[in-house]
């Protein structure tokens, strides 16, 4: 909207509201200062409002990208290193998870994870447990929990299992599916889940 359009709009609206008036009355609505650009007040207000909205929109987009980076990752090239997780891995709460499509026994599955800088999945929280159960469905997947020679259950990272969830079964290697965490013979061929820190 240029100043001529604003003047025309101002003039026509004044005629509608107050009838025919002289130029002296119309000049009352425009502010003129010597040495400054002469812009009618309604145009100046429209310009200020428009620029303010633009600034707010830019700030909102910047804050949104900072607070919710996952929503803006589609523009990042696939080979850029946003985290230490590869394309096949799923990032969740500071960990990378790989859910296998093949089957192996517990030891070979653990060896596979080790080659990728990970271990069979160590599950630290209820949130992680729910997340993994949703991703594996009814299929049994090895996790990194093993009972060595009927001793104490330990995670594949060496930490002792503190029984924070119910583990069923009477064998030495643990697996999970969407309904339970149980144990079976370590030589059985199952899918598996690897985990490692995402940074």
Automatic annotation (TrEMBL):
Subcellular location: Cell membrane
Gene Ontology cellular component list: external side of plasma membrane; protein-containing complex
Molecular function via GO: carbohydrate binding; identical protein binding; molecular sequestering activity; transmembrane signaling receptor activity
Any Gene Ontology biological process: negative regulation of T-helper 17 cell lineage commitment
TM helices/strands, residue ranges: 39-63
Predominant localisation class: membrane
Residue ranges annotated for the C-type lectin domain, each copy included: 92-195
Protein keywords: Lectin, Membrane, Transmembrane, Transmembrane helix
InterPro entries for the chain: C-type_lectin-like (IPR001304), C-type_lectin-like/link_sf (IPR016186), C-type_lectin/matrix_domain (IPR050828), CTDL_fold (IPR016187), NKR-like_CTLD (IPR033992)
Topology of the protein relative to the lipid bilayer: Single-pass type II membrane protein
Name this protein carries in UniProt: Early activation antigen CD69-like isoform X1
Gene source species: Physeter macrocephalus
């Amino acid at each position: 909207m240029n100043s001529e359009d604003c003047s025309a709009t101002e003039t026509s609206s004044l005629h509608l509201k107050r009838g025919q008036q002289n130029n002296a009355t119309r000049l009352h609505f425009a502010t003129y200062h010597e040495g400054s650009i002469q812009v009618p007040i309604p145009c100046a207000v429209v310009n200020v409002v428009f620029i303010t909205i633009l600034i707010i929109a830019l700030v909102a987009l910047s804050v949104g990208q900072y607070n919710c980076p996952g929503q803006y990752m589609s523009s990042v090239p696939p080979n850029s290193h946003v985290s230490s997780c590869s394309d096949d891995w799923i990032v969740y709460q500071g960990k990378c998870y790989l859910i296998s499509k093949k089957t192996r026994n517990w030891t070979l599955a653990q060896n596979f994870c080790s080659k990728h800088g990970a271990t069979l999945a160590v599950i630290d929280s209820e949130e992680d447990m729910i997340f993994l159960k949703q991703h594996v469905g009814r299929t049994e997947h090895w996790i990194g929990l093993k009972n060595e020679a009927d001793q104490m259950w330990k995670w594949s990272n060496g930490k002792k299992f503190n029984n924070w969830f119910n583990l069923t079964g009477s064998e030495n290697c643990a697996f999970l599916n969407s309904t339970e965490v149980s144990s079976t013979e370590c030589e059985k061929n199952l899918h598996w889940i690897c985990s490692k820190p995402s940074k």
